Amino acid sequence: MALRFDGLTFDPERDVARLGTALEKVAEAMSNGSWWTLAQLSRRCGTSECSASARIRDLRKPRNGGRTVESKRIAAGLWAYRLHPEGAPQ
Which of 52, 60, 73, 74 has the CB geometry, 3.0–4.6 Å to 41, for a possible disulfide? Predict the structure, then answer.
């Protein structure tokens, strides 16, 4: 099985299932093409905002599909994100 996650503190036994589930939930939520703030994704997916942000970064990685995630500034320090409508790789 190819690992979809990595990092200095990553422990496969502890983290693969949890992060994989979170990645699937974030991808599913964003699949409708709507704009999402991290707070909205966090509530929808049952993750922290930090985890939602990390899963967005994971969606952009080639090993997780290389999806195109657009971003736009809503207000000072507040951003929204959406999967490109076709989900095309960058």
Answer: 52
